[in-house]
Amino acid sequence: MNGCSRLAQSPSYDDTNAAIILRIAVPSPVRRCFDYRPPAGVPTAYLRPGVRVQVPFRGGTRIGIILAILDNSEISPDRLKSVLKVLDDNPILPPDIIDLLKWSSRYYQHPIGEVFRAILPSVLRRGRETTSREEWCWQLTELGAGVSPSDLPRAPRQAAILTTLQAHPRGVIANACAAIKPGWRPVLRTLEKKGWVRRVDPDPLQATTTKAAWQLEPAQDAAIKAIERVGKRFCTILLEGVTGSGKTEVYLELIDRTVRAGRQALILIPEIGLTPQMVARFRQRLSTPVQVFHSGLSDQERLRTWTMAREGRVSVIIGTRSAAFIPLSKPGLFIVDEEHDISYKQQDGFRYSARDIIVMRGRQLGVPVVLGSATPSLESLNNAVHGRYRQLLLPKRAGGASLPAVDIIDVRGRAFEASLSDSLLHAIEDRLARGEQSLLFINRRGYAPLMICHECGWIAACAHCDARMVYHRSGECLRCHHCGSERAVPNHCGACDNTDLRVLGTGTQRVVKALSKHFTGARIGRIDRDIVAHRGALEAALSKIHTGETHILVGTQMLTKGHHFPAVTLVGILDADQGLFGSDFRSTERLGQLIVQVAGRAGRGARRGTVLIQTHHPTHPLLQLLITEGYRNFAKTLLAERAEAGLPPYAALALVRAETIAREATLEFLAEAKQQAQARLVDGVALFGPVPAPMERRGGRYRAHLLVHAQQRGLLHRLLHAWIPQLETLKSGRRVRWSVDVDPQVML
Ligand code: ADP
Ligand code: ZN
Ligand code: ZN
């Protein structure tokens, strides 16, 4: 650290670096690198790619990263400024990550300095120390091994930690205890004082996996063997396994083997906060330290995982999207679970797809990549069809569980309260009588999505967005789900002053209320983003389901993500129509994935599950296809439709978005942008727009976009490379906020 001052006194000091030029990624919206002269007195050996430097920039200073050492620059030497300070003795990023980031910057058309800034843990971004606090491993002493947790009825936390440590004779990392009991640190210290536990150095390569109690299914075994045969080279495997088929078991086996071979495994999952179970399961089964990496951690915790991974001191890392860029010293396996999940695509700033980055990384490093899902994206299925990915199937549920039966409830003309048909209510009643759990899915939080004047039809709208305010019963307020603004519930109409205001439509809160009225005494839980906003609330809600305390659970798509609820035998999908008639060309794909994933929560235990889908369009061909023939054939049909329409994956898209508070400015910029692009247009590439975004005003800004459609990916990138840097020269661009989204997932 502070290499500069220390090195300046070193005897090897000389000025031999005077002739070199440093090419540096500096955070700035400008799509290029910046050249600087090295600081005087720092030996050339210390100026390496991946080292952070502080540089003068636009009247201030910024932290940049050295990308290359050159012997000349296009800029005349007397105009070059000097680096102020070298911040690291050793590169904080290895060459492979630097290459990956350079590639990402080109592919996603995002400024290189911003790409580096986006992926660095914030502590590093601000130029701070790279060292992180040590993580210890804990182990039972002989004395402690002689204690039975059941002897400690008055100290449940001590007992819980002893139980965990007993399962791991070679020790577990303290974080694993955190997964069991909050407030574990003082508990461990108490146990240490009693002489029952001791600290040991973590050995990242020890792998004493606790074996599962069952035999692998033949399909699981075959998949593991097939992936093992790939060996240490790049290959992307699409592991398509129905919900509950034991994909996670396959991952665990592969990870175990990777770790035993002295290598690291990186596992991406969609949203870690939503799946504490998944992390706990990994920690329970793998006794090698498992580190997590996601936005819910403190800066220090993130830095610790990052540093440990880079130094090879941890061999299993589970993380969300941003973990795709964690440096690894001994990469051996990449896994992307639920690869179809939209959360892998960053929706602002550096708009990368973590799944695609991982595939690129595997190729670059010669490491196998496993993409797992019960409902693979059409992109990945198409890659499998063309032999770019190898496809492996797990066609049955593991352990003899069967897939749920799926039925449609035609709600046309039926009595319907809070989106609950009488058939669905009867089905729930049956489950209650049998002591089984039900799970209801509705894709809307809040109480009701619409507040309307019964006299004149006025609708409460957001002042900053082209959107309606959602009525929330908790807190008695109206909230905009797009910009987050909130206000008190009005007591009279905004147009005619009448006081007869009513709410229309159904959100999770309303379903809960209707259910509690209908089934007095039933315990009803709710999981949605409003609940999850409270720390620990999700864990509490999930644990109530597992203990059987909750009889009926109502939730949004958060429920779809990988949860395992063995006692749930009924799943109700309250409204399939929204997805059937969505405006985005991906809506039907997403609806299919969602139905299959929610349905997949049913009947994972011994009893078979039932799924009931409410719709006004019971004969919709796609819905029928999904139900009668399953996701694979549904996806095949969708692929044929996409091919016909020339849409991804049979075409490549990019969106140039612009937004500003002045409506005309966005359209003017995009019109000029289009002219620039047209001058470079070749056959096979077309421009659509500019058009206002489907929700034109959001958060007080007007939004519009220009769509670039290319029949082949290569054509798209050729145009973008030639054009986007030119976009920066447009004067009209300075008045708007604009961005490029390559492979957009949401066309808003
Ligand atoms: P997926 O990730 O495909 O949804 P999981 O790996 O979570 O599936 O497995 C679903 C359930 O089946 C889990 O409870 C798991 O413990 C269990 N399971 C997995 N493999 C087997 C097996 N070979 N025999 C019995 N049960 C299994
Ligand atoms: Zn709003
Ligand atoms: Zn009115």
Summarize the structure.
The chain is an alpha/beta fold.
Distinct small-molecule ligands in the complex: adenosine-5'-diphosphate, zinc ion
Overall helicity? 25-40%
CATH topology of the largest domain: Rossmann fold
Shape: globular
Shape-level CATH architecture of the largest domain? 3-Layer(aba) Sandwich
How many domains? The number is: 5
> Which sequence of strands runs across the widest sheet?
11-12-10-13-14-9-15
Distance between the termini: 45 Å
CATH homologous superfamily caption of the largest domain? P-loop containing nucleotide triphosphate hydrolases
Written overview of the protein:
With 748 residues, the protein is an alpha/beta fold. The chain folds into 5 domains: 3-125, PriA, 3(prime) DNA-binding domain (GIY-YIG endonuclease, 3-Layer(aba) Sandwich); 138-199, no CATH class; 218-399, P-loop containing nucleotide triphosphate hydrolases (Rossmann fold); 401-448 and 505-641, P-loop containing nucleotide triphosphate hydrolases (Rossmann fold); 652-742, Alpha-Beta Plaits. Helices cover 33% and strands 22% of the residues. A hairpin with a 2-residue loop joins strand 30 and strand 31 (701-710). Helix 9 packs parallel to helix 10 (247-260) and helix 20 (587-599) crosses helix 21. The model is unreliable at 1-15 (pLDDT under 50). Bound molecules: adenosine-5'-diphosphate (ADP) and zinc ion (2 copies). One zinc ion binds next to loops.
Q: Can you give keywords for this protein?
A:
single chain, globular, disordered N terminus, seven-stranded parallel β-sheet, Rossmann fold, six-stranded parallel β-sheet, binds adenosine-5'-diphosphate, GIY-YIG endonuclease, 5 domains, binds zinc ion
